[in-house]
Amino acid sequence: MTKGKRIIPILWAVATLALATVPGCGGDGGSEQGLLVSVFGPPAAIFPDLNPFANCDLVKICYDVDDGKTQDCTVVSYVDKEAVLESLPFDKLVSVSVECLKVDMDTVTGEQRQIPVSRGQSCSVKRGKGDAIKTGYVYMLPSPSFGPTFNLAQGDQASKPGGERWGSTIVEMFDGSVLIAGGAGISGTCEDWADPSCVEDMLDTAEIYNPANGSFTAVSNAGGTAGSAFMSEKRAFAAAVVLPSEEIAIFGGLTDGNQASGSVDIYDPISNTFRAAPAMTNTRAYHTATLINREGNGEVLLVGGYGTGFQNWEIWSPVTGTVQTGGLTSPRWNHTATLVDKTVDPGANREVVLIAGGEGGPEGTVNVSGTMDVFDLQFRAMDPTAKFLCSNDGANSKTKTMHGAAFVPLRHFLYIVGGFNDAGHLNPTSEICVYHTSQETWAGTLQLRKARGALSATALDGNVVLFAGGLTRSSGVLKPTSTVEILFEYQNTAGETVVDIGPADDYPIPMLYPRWGHEAMVGCDGKVFFVGGLGGESSSSANVEARTELFNPDES
Hints:
Layout: E1 5-9, E2 15-20, E3 34-40, E4 58-65, E5 71-77, E6 82-86, E7 93-105, E8 112-121, E9 125-126, E10 134-139, E11 141-142, E12 145-148, E13 150-151, E14 156-157, E15 169-172, E16 178-181, E17 206-210, E18 215-218, E19 239-242, E20 248-251, E21 254-255, E22 259-260, E23 264-268, E24 273-277, E25 288-293, E26 299-303, E27 312-317, E28 321-327, E29 336-340, E30 352-356, E31 359-360, E32 367-368, E33 371-376, E34 381-382, E35 387-388, E36 404-408, E37 413-417, E38 431-436, E39 441-447, E40 456-460, E41 464-468, E42 471-474, E43 477-480, E44 484-491, E45 497-502, E46 519-522, E47 528-531, E48 534-536, E49 542-544, E50 549-552
Parallel strand pairs: 3-10
Antiparallel strand pairs: 1-6, 2-3, 4-5, 4-7, 7-8, 7-9, 8-11, 12-50, 13-14, 15-16, 16-17, 17-18, 19-20, 20-23, 21-22, 23-24, 25-26, 26-27, 27-28, 29-30, 30-33, 31-32, 33-34, 33-35, 36-37, 37-38, 38-39, 40-41, 41-44, 42-43, 44-45, 46-47, 47-50, 48-49
């Protein structure tokens, strides 16, 4: 064995990889300590098409240090079941990635090539000298593919203890786990489930998803600490942010009687409890919450919403409550809000929150917005004139509600995608409006291959955006879809940057379950986590999708 390195055994379905430090450097008495890595995938007996170890000839194992300065990889034969890595550093966040490679011959060049067939990575972990061995889990899936959330301890597809949750809030916490709070179920029928008056069976409970091992656990005050395992009100279609304290603030939402709430709950991930916080000035549901000040206690910009706040904004502090208010140029709920600041985009022209589309108005006069408001963080004020949505001069501007928004900072592109152009949510749209955040102009319009509303838009590494699910029209009927589309940038033979949308309708990697109105986020393991939403045969004949799933991107 090479000095300073450690042999890593790879097993067939569940493997234990001992990534150890140099002997004598890991603790008292020269004992070897390191990062224990457990590699696993969905069982072939249950998910035969998702066996990550099929066609696996070689295994590539890497570790990365989050400072971006250290990386070590090794490629070994899968049959040999062993690998060699450099010793792991102390007091650094370290993640491990594993990739299965298929070896074949290029028919054109005759050269041997290695084709990635599956991959996975662990969430980051940190060890100090003398710490007990920690475990990093690597859940392997074919790449790219959708797969189930999978509970390693139970050995089967994870089920959520909270059951049905549609309209919940999902937030990543400091340790990479995800808080899933509130939401609603369905017990009746309705022609338009996107109508606030149709939401039923709101919840005051929450649960935590751990992407490291695929487990779901209910929030519980078993330790007897101050606080409650329940929120102060039942909530669906609330909004949430992570505060500088790493606590999570959850604002408003629909509560009993389909009324919008003005209350705020704060979840403490250390005590695993909720407590009430200062209320908002206005009641809000289907609104947005954006952390605009990371200093001190933090401040949150709350915009629009179904309720008394439909045409205003407020800045909220966890200590004093609302500290500032102002008006919007248009009523808005079901809009999007995108933060563009120096932390997100160092090249930003100015620091703003871009508030696009949505619907709103007094009862009986709800309209869909065709504008975008711009909130300036320096002056803490909304620009006096809104921008036309998707148009620099007002010609051919678009109206959008229940659309998606994804920001690619490296290119300064904000993609405003899909949605509905009517308040009855009957007409899904296909336009992707591209806004250049540094030039503060619309850079053009692209088209989805399939018009879809109530979809998710998730920005991935490599200037890639994943558009998933939504409601689409089929034979004149609005139906949930499991199809996905991917926006990606590449250079053509002339060296020009091209933005393209793919794949075609026969793309072989759909979602596991059709869903719309769902939540999606990139987890600490690099996979996109999907939760909630509605399924069923049509938009009116719906059921809450209680099953969760993951998208494993192609990062080869």
